[in-house]
Design brief:
The structure is a single chain. Strand 24 and strand 25 form a beta hairpin. This protein starts with a helix and ends with a helix. It is globular. The chain has 520 residues and is α/β, with parallel strands linked by helices. Helix 1 runs antiparallel to helix 2.
Length: 520
């Protein structure tokens, strides 16, 4: 990453590297200079050395955040990505778990920081206010850093390929977040491969609407740096995305199906208000692409090449490639393994490798771009990366053409009356109802069957439980996987872990309480 920063400065010094919603517009030379300033402040004010961990609390990607995070790879410091939407208790644990020494924060996270501090952060030696000060002892304003260390020199630090590049916590939807480690060599490969599969060049503009607590932000940010492409950073809101795309003439974006639905709803309010001709490539991730998302996306962006992919905090595995017509005709197809990546589907009960098409199995992977393990936890590394393979937890099938199809998560599977039920299967059927905007299915305890499906439904018009149950039976869907309990949510959003991931853990707890109270 140090070399990538220096290369971009040398080849494209005056070209715009990043713009943001704060009004910043930095060239690659400015980005490198600001990063050098931060590195010198880390060294002189907080005694940060190579290998020390630094992190941030922010809901919005920005130019300053880039200099505070991946920019400090110049001195060998290790950025730590963590979810700023987590509880104060969980954030404090994540900071203390890796022994973070510097913690930056943006204005919207001031209250959160105070709650986290009250729990105790013994390892943090310096706080950096990206914007307005919270008057914390030992705090430094980022603007003052840029002024005081404006003539900082490039740190004389050598970084080898096998060294730690950054740590990214998982969302922790099924338990405590895992601090996943990425090494320099595999992350550099990931940035190069992302740029390749997205077809990025130095003339392109990447729309970076992902929060900086999401590894997708790191993917598109580092891929843009790798080729000298401009990136425009902002906090995702449907109107802001459309406005930014039109103003910056964005060419590339990373979206989830949930975000596509939000964009479509906003655009329907003012059809034709935004020119979408500049957007050339869009990658999908985060959740399966359904038929309704495909049609909405084509209506909004008829000239865009859509890509599908499968990845996680631990790495990117599958991709469909730019302009692949196969995924248009086969909506559920995710893609094939990236070059150099080896994958296997294994039976979740026996562990046997599945070779035939159409049979569901747990996805295992190994190769370049995949995490080296879990920070400072040999046991967790052995459990999640057995014998050099990463057990993803994703359930997939392979079709006759060799394309992989997402079939759920192993941790979303439960048995009801000794029959396996996959939440994503039930959700896919529920989303076929014309009034359903989104659906989440979780397991709740049942005295007869052990567990049964509980369905949360977001809907655009008035629906009744009796109507939903009748619709299910009329469509001859499997009776044994039908929801036995319902919560009609209305149009408001489900609770989210990140801007692209629904908080299933909270919904599961809510479902159990509703069943106990007899309210569902």
């Amino acid at each position: 990453m140090k070399d990538i920063f220096l290369w971009s400065e040398k080849v494209f010094p005056c070209e715009t590297a990043i713009t943001d919603a704060l009004g910043n517009s930095w060239s690659f030379e400015q980005l490198n200079n600001f990063s050098r300033s931060v590195c010198e402040s880390y060294a002189k004010l907080a005694a940060i050395r190579k290998g020390d961990r630094v992190g941030w609390l922010s809901l919005e990607a920005s130019a300053p955040l880039l200099s505070l995070s991946f920019g400090v790879r110049k001195m060998g410091a290790v950025p730590v990505i963590m979810n700023s939407r987590s509880s104060a208790e969980r954030i404090a644990w994540m900071i203390n778990n890796v022994g973070m020494k510097v913690l930056a924060y943006s204005a919207e996270c001031r209250g959160l920081l105070e709650r986290v501090q009250a729990i105790g952060l013994p390892s943090v030696k310096q706080y950096i206010a990206i914007g307005e000060s919270a008057n914390i002892p030992g705090e430094v304003l980022l603007a003052d850093i840029y002024t005081e260390f404006s003539n900082a020199k490039e740190p004389e630090v050598k970084i080898s390929p096998e060294e730690l590049c950054f740590i990214s916590y998982t969302s922790g939807t099924t338990g405590r977040p895992k601090p996943v480690i990425h090494l320099e060599e595999e992350w550099t490969w990931t940035a190069q491969m992302m740029a390749h599969v997205l077809g990025l060049t130095h003339k392109d503009v990447t729309l970076v609407g992902m929060p900086p607590s999401f590894v997708g932000w790191a993917h598109v940010t580092c891929a843009s740096l790798r080729v000298g492409a401009k990136q425009s950073a902002f906090r995702f809101e449907a109107r802001r995305f459309l406005d930014t795309m039109a103003r910056e003439k964005g060419t590339h974006a990373l979206l989830s199906p949930t975000l596509v639905r939000m964009l479509y709803s906003e655009r329907q309010k003012q059809p034709g208000a935004w020119i979408t001709d500049s957007l050339r490539v869009c990658a999908f991730g985060g959740e399966p692409v359904t038929a309704d998302v495909h049609s909405k996306f084509e209506e909004m962006f008829p000239n865009v090449a859509r890509l599908t992919s499968l990845g996680a905090t631990e790495g990117i595995l599958l991709h469909s490639g730019v302009g692949n017509s196969y995924i248009i005709d086969h909506v559920g197809a995710i893609g094939k393994p990236l070059p150099g990546v080896t994958v296997e589907l294994r039976d979740e009960d026996t562990g046997d490798v599945i070779s035939e098409s159409g049979k569901r199995g747990v996805l295992y992977a190994r190769g370049p771009g995949i995490s080296a393990g879990i920070w400072n936890d040999a046991k967790a590394t052995a459990e999640n990366f057995p014998e050099g393979w990463w057990r993803t937890g994703d359930m997939l099938e392979r079709d006759e053409s060799g394309y992989f199809i997402f079939a759920g998560r192993s941790d979303h599977m439960f048995k009801s009356g000794n029959i396996k039920v996959y939440s994503e299967d039930v959700e896919a059927k529920l989303k076929m109802h014309p009034a359903v905007l989104d659906a989440v299915v979780v397991a709740v305890s049942d005295s007869t069957f052990g567990f049964v499906p509980f369905a949360f439904i977001r809907h655009s018009s008035v629906v009744e439980v009796e109507e939903m149950e009748g619709w299910w039976l009329e469509n001859s869907f499997e009776r044994y996987i039908r929801p036995r309990h319902w919560k009609l949510w209305g149009e408001s959003s489900f609770p989210m872990v990140t801007d692209v991931k629904i908080d299933r853990r909270t919904l599961a707890s809510m479902a159990e309480e509703l069943v106990k109270e007899g309210a569902a």
